[in-house]
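Example 4.3 (complexes with small molecules)
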Amino acid sequence: MNIRIATNQDSDDIKRVYLSTFPKGESEIVAKIAIELLSENTTPQTISLIAETDHSVVGHIAFSPVKIDHNEDCQAYIFAPLAVQANYQKHGIGSTLIKYGMQQLSAMGVNIVFVYGDPNYYERFGFNADAARNYITPYNLQYPSGWQAIVLNEYAMEKVPVAINCVASLCDPKLW
Ligand SMILES: CC(C)(COP(=O)(O)OP(=O)(O)OC[C@H]1O[C@@H](n2cnc3c(N)ncnc32)[C@H](O)[C@@H]1OP(=O)(O)O)[C@@H](O)C(=O)NCCC(=O)NCCS
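Answer. The structure with coenzyme A bound is encoded below.
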């Protein structure tokens, strides 16, 4: 398996992975977001990665920056979405994409990374709800227990709740 930075030329392959992985109805929304994130022009950069096996795209993940209200010193990211093609799941591809991205972010000095998803999966990477508790998402969460974070580089964590702001592609209430 090879991991590389995704470009706009990978859009069709990324779309195929999401359409075949998420339930119908949800899959179109998530595929659209994954493709829009390829064109997010942010500082710091939005990073989209794909996993390839036998020259075919079988997995994708995107990491985009998050702004924390009243705290410009804290570098934060969120990762979403993530998918691995069904017939390639349970071979460690999802874990490799997450760990590869987190290593890049850690080297960049990123302090905290958020994720919104199944705690049973993300806790194995060190994500936990406690670390995310004081960060208020842009929309109300359908599954509050899915809001988690991991601290990569220590900093003065928020002691009172603060709002966070995501890139435009993730500003869709249906995602949250
Ligand atoms: C979640 C997903 C990306 C994992 O990819 P993957 O390549 O299969 O992951 P890995 O091989 O690294 O890890 C597989 C392990 O995670 C477990 N796992 C996968 N999804 C899980 C979940 N929602 N809750 C708990 N465990 C989960 C598998 O059972 C497997 O366990 P094992 O190691 O004990 O056998 C993939 O299952 C997927 O694309 N699912 C559909 C889309 C999705 O849910 N995306 C995440 C949105 S938050």
